[in-house]
Amino acid sequence: MTDAARREQILRAAEKLLGQYGAAKTTMADLAREAGVAVGSVYLEFSSKEAIVEALSTARHRRVIDAMQRAAASEGSFADRLRGIFEARTTVLLRYAEEGAHVCELVHCVSGAVRVAQARFREEETELLAGLLRDGARAGKLVAPKPMVAARTLLRAYAVFAPPQLFELQRDEVRDALRAMHELVLQGVLAR
Question: 105 with 143, same domain?
């Protein structure tokens, strides 16, 4: 088995066990057993359980960013693309919530490994949003004199549609609340 294949096998096993039992109740021996490899092989690929959690958290955050990037690059008005970024983010995060509480821990919890992945995610989503605002301002379609400040502010405004608040909302109210937030936000950033 190649190193890459072994690493992927360990990550799949870790995602399954961490999703079922959480990081606190999953040991490296459990991960090795589930992956069908020796404990030493797990340590060859990952220095610790925290490193595995960080890799899984990074991969989950990457899926969110990828969905947001597709929305930002889509055809349509800047308003549609801005809405699309937050719709995409919310949709992927809601899918995670449906997988269970322990899966949610991979995108939001007090774990240092998850916080590292979250910090990288926040930087990427801020840059993505600032880029769209900058492009929209250049095209005369959006008002964003300070795109980075505006991006951070928008992300704060949409924080209720991100963990942990998102995971506490009733699913049937999320879409209506998200639409209402879009209307409020777009009133402030659309060029007149």
Answer: yes
